[in-house]
């Protein structure tokens, strides 16, 4: 019964995503996870007017330092423009730190317009031995483009390179909390044995989860999480505030934040799986009990 309810919840999430965000695509770039030689590590075509969220996370296991490049290039060599929301991390050798920074920067980044009048746009930084490159960006180009992510050069593809394009990278979830149902949980990420990377899946890195929490005005809500697959953390936007957790060991019970429900009786919470940690992660939402006012202090 529990497995059926989880499946039903994932199906409802999928139906919302397909209905509301059918034009969006997620480009998942993480195979192979380790850079061992120069070459191209992701390659995809982008269509004009289509929104794409690009997620990548790679460790440099070569013995060299070189340029790591995310390149957008016009198919006709003509100039182009695109809107962009970017979260690009500073490379370090600690995968969870890099992944968390990329997601934090992405969630709070504004959308901006970029013009590539020479027909190519590149996001480049130096990547040293054992450093990790992690980033996420959403773009919408006005012309057909080719995305390539490469190390040093793009003359050939890296061995076992695979780029996956998934539909609808956004999941909207209703979380009703009240006196009869003060707790709610939601799992992000399927267990590894149930994961099929060839299809749209619950818990993809780069997939946006938007939670609409409905609760009585003035009450406090606690958001927590439990890593179920290994070390994990959480980054999210609650209203307009960015919140980041520490990295916790598997099966730790962590409080992420507490917030007071506003006059509309709802809270908006947005999060996404980031690179360098393990999933699934179970989110918990709890309506905290009201605290009765005590007797007035005596003089």
If you had to describe this structure to a student in words, what would you say it looks like?
It is a single chain. The N terminus is likely disordered. This protein is mainly beta and 299 residues long. It is built from two helices and 20 strands. The strands form four sheets. Strands 1, 2, 4, 6, 7, 9 and 11 form a seven-stranded mixed β-sheet that branches. The termini are far apart. The protein folds into two domains: 137 residues, Jelly Rolls (Sandwich), CATH 2.60.120; 144 residues, Jelly Rolls (Sandwich), CATH 2.60.120.
Main structural class: mainly beta
Estimated share of beta-strand residues = over 45%
Count structural domains: 2
Mean pLDDT: 87
CATH topology of the largest domain: Jelly Rolls
Helicity range = 10-25%
Shape summary? globular
- DSSP strand count: 20
Order of helices and strands: HEEEEEEHEEEEEEEEEEEEEE
Q: Span between N and C termini?
A: 58 Å
Organism: Armatimonas rosea
Keywords: Signal
Protein name: DUF4424 domain-containing protein
Signal peptide: 1-22
Compact summary:
The protein has 299 residues and is mainly β.
Structural features:
299 residues, mainly beta, Jelly Rolls, 11% helix, globular, disordered N terminus
């Amino acid at each position: 019964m529990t497995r059926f309810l989880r499946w039903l919840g994932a199906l409802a999430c999928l139906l919302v995503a397909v209905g509301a965000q059918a034009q969006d695509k997620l480009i998942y770039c993480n195979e192979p996870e380790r850079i061992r030689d120069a070459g191209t590590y992701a390659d995809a075509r982008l269509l004009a007017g289509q929104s794409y969220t690009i997620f990548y996370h790679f460790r440099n296991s070569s013995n060299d330092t070189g340029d790591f490049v995310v390149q957008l290039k016009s198919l006709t060599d003509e100039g182009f423009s695109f809107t962009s929301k970017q979260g690009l991390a500073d490379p370090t050798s600690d995968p969870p730190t890099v992944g968390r920074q990329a997601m934090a920067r992405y969630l709070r980044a504004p959308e901006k317009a970029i013009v590539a009048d020479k027909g190519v746009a590149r996001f480049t930084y130096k990547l040293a031995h054992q450093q990790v490159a992690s980033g996420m960006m959403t773009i919408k180009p006005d012309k057909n483009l080719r995305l390539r992510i490469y190390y040093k050069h793009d003359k050939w593809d890296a061995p076992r390179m695979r780029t996956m394009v998934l539909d609808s990278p956004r999941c909207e979830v209703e979380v009703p909390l009240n006196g009869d149902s003060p707790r709610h949980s939601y799992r992000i990420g399927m267990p590894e044995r149930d994961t099929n990377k060839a299809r749209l899946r619950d818990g993809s890195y780069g997939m946006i989860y938007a939670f609409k929490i409905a609760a009585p005005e003035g009450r406090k809500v606690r958001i927590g999480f439990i890593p179920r697959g290994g070390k994990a953390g959480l980054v999210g936007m609650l209203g307009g505030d960015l919140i980041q957790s520490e990295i916790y060991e598997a099966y730790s019970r962590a409080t992420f934040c507490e917030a007071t429900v506003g006059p509309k009786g709802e809270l908006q919470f947005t999060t996404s799986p980031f690179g360098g940690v393990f999933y699934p992660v179970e989110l918990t939402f709890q309506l905290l009990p009201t605290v009765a006012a005590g007797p007035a202090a005596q003089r």
